[in-house]
Amino acid sequence: MTLEHQDDDHGHDHDHHDHEHVDYPEAVTRFRAQKDEYFRGAHDSPIPHDRRHDFPGLPYFPVDESLRFEGLKLEPYAGAEPASFQIPTSDGKLRPAIRAGVFKFDVGGTTHALTGYAFESGSSESVFVPFLDLTSGRETYGAGRYLDLFPEGDGTYALDFNLAYHPSCVYDARFSCPLTPAENRLPVRVEAGERLEPEG
Fold first, then answer.
1. H or E element that contains 4
2. pLDDT value at position 191?
3. Which region, left, alpha or beta, applies to residue 193 given φ > 0 means left and ψ of -120 to 50 means alpha?
4. pLDDT tens-digit profile of 31-88?
5. Relative to the CA of 23, which of 50, 70, 82, 131 has its CA 20 to 30 Å away?
């Protein structure tokens, strides 16, 4: 589920006098509300059954539109690691993956890069971008957060940290979740997307 899918739910009939323009923060808020409902009620929710009835909803950082990067190209991977490799998972297994390419973006005047991955058994279109940042292990899960990027019509991608989410193994250890490779450790705080419940 992506924001694009959610926006489509509102229709595009511009002749209708009640047409509602949903701004970006509101679209993210609605997307999050839908995810909370899914976690509470879906049969395949990652929340264990005995915790669903009093699930309070996922905690998030406030929406930060400066951490949404549009029009990015998936640049060829040119690092020292092999293109095909085995990505370790939270349950001690290995999943065949490839380094599909690199996304570059600027935060605070500095250019950063994240490698995108593809799984041999996954969707051919989506690019999996796990990452660590300076909130990892404190405000966010220590093994990283995830982004799933899909190409736009022009072949570019939007990398939106407001959509960063925790792997399912945060909620239930029975899930097998890929661990974030060291090359995707960002030297900045990414205060956007899902976070852990604040302590205290």
1. helix 3-8
2. 97
3. left
4. 999 999 999 999 999 999 989 988 999 999 999 999 999 999 999 999 899 999 999 9
5. 131
Residue in 99, 107, 88, 114 with CA at minimum distance from that of residue 167: 88
Q: Under DSSP, is residue 105 helix (H, G, I), strand (E, B) or coil?
A: strand
Domain segments of the chain as ranges? 1-58, 59-200
Token duo for residue 181: 């490779």
Residue with tokens 């999050």: 32
Query: HEC states along the chain?
Result: CCHHHHHHCCCCCCCCCCCCCCCHHHHHHHHHHHHHHHHHHCCCCCCCHHHHCCCCCCCECCCCHHHEEEEECCECCCCCCCCEEEEEECCCCEEEEEEEEEEEEEECCEEEEEEEEEECCCCCCCEEEEEECCCECCCECCCCEEEEECCCCCCCEEEEHHHCECCHHHCCCCCCCECCCHHHECCCCCCCCECCCCCC
Select from 157, 159, 158 the least CA-distant residue to 145.
Answer: 159
What is the distance between the alpha carbons of residues 50 and 160, in angstroms, rounded to a whole number? 32
